[in-house]
Specification:
mainly alpha, Serine Threonine Protein Phosphatase 5, Tetratricopeptide repeat
């Protein structure tokens, strides 16, 4: 006697999520055969035959759902590539419903949702979309706690909606997995500078002082003392991680640019020490020059084309 698995896989249609029971080829004949043999089989035998048949049907339905999930996954990828993010989201959602164990579909769904997050927008709808994407990436991490891509994605979403402490936490977690990740180290430095800048501007604006980017030597002493208390740990950490990024990727012009910016914030901390302030500003200008020079070199090497020096996905050059 043929099993339900054999019957169902022959008729499995990935265009439908799940066929009705009466659409399963052979299901009617199976029921008829059981009825015909009903008078010849004892109770336990009939029960076991029914269990085997139903088990085969369940397995076959599961197999068809898996195929349908893969179909939706592929359609979602095509929609995503074409920039049709809503269609992609619908397909990825369907794939995860059909096959909850399809981790790839969850990652793609969260990535597509993240595309709908508007950076800097703190409306309830935007924050809900951001949190939905984060929650799905965290589900992926529950199955694979070492998935660096999900960590980076969560950090990026948190940064875009100005949850800077959370974004830094996730980037530091990336660095625990890979201490030589230059983007993670760079981003920690950027976050530190962003927070330090916001602290400084808030205090200076309250004191009716325009930020000069060179130590603000004309600002009231108590204002600068408050800035130093807030920003000293951020500046020290930011300089550490930006240098770490450059150690790993010596041509990292963006990190050099932020070292220029963060040393100008360091000048605030040295308020009252003219020589130290001058040294901070001088170091900032040096990094600015290095950044501009490296940026030009990077563009020139990138544009050399085949046969010349090329840049890989990590921003490193090779012949």
């Amino acid at each position: 006697m043929e099993t339900g698995v054999q019957f169902f896989h022959r008729g499995c249609d990935v265009s439908r999520s799940r066929p009705d029971a009466d659409e399963i080829p052979g299901a009617g004949r199976l029921g008829a055969r059981l009825k015909e043999k009903d008078t010849k089989m004892n109770g336990p035998a009939r029960f076991m035959a029914l269990v085997v048949a139903l088990a085969g049907m369940v397995l076959s339905i599961s197999g068809c759902d898996h195929l349908a999930a893969r179909d939706h996954l592929n359609k979602g990828v095509e929609a995503y590539k074409g920039g049709h993010y809503e269609d992609a989201i619908n397909h990825f959602q369907k794939a995860t419903e059909l096959d909850p164990g399809l981790t790839q579909a969850k990652s793609y769904l969260a990535t597509a949702l993240a595309q709908n997050v508007v950076p800097g927008l703190t409306t309830q709808e935007n924050l809900q979309t951001a949190q939905q994407a984060i929650d799905i990436f965290q589900q992926v991490l529950e199955g694979n706690p070492h998935d660096v891509n999900s960590m980076k994605q969560i950090a990026g979403i948190d940064f875009s909606i100005k949850r800077l402490d959370d974004a830094k936490k996730w980037q530091l977690r990336v660095l625990q997995e890979d201490p030589k990740d230059p983007e993670a180290a760079y981003t920690v430095g950027v976050i530190d500078w962003t927070q330090a800048r916001d602290n400084a501007l808030k205090a200076l604006v309250a004191a009716n002082v325009n930020d000069d980017g060179e130590g603000n030597v004309k600002a009231p002493k108590d204002v600068m003392a408050a800035i130093k208390t807030q920003n000293a740990p951020l500046i020290a950490e930011g300089i550490q991680y930006l240098n770490q990024a450059i150690d790993v990727r010596p041509n990292y012009d963006q990190a050099m640019s932020y070292l220029n910016l963060i040393y100008r914030r360091k000048a605030d901390l040295d308020f009252g020490n003219a020589d130290a302030v001058k040294a901070d500003v001088s170091t900032a200008e040096d990094w600015n020059s290095k950044a501009m020079g490296m940026r030009k070199a990077n563009e020139a090497k990138k544009n050399q084309g085949p046969g010349g020096i090329t840049m890989d996905n990590s921003g490193n050059f090779s012949n």
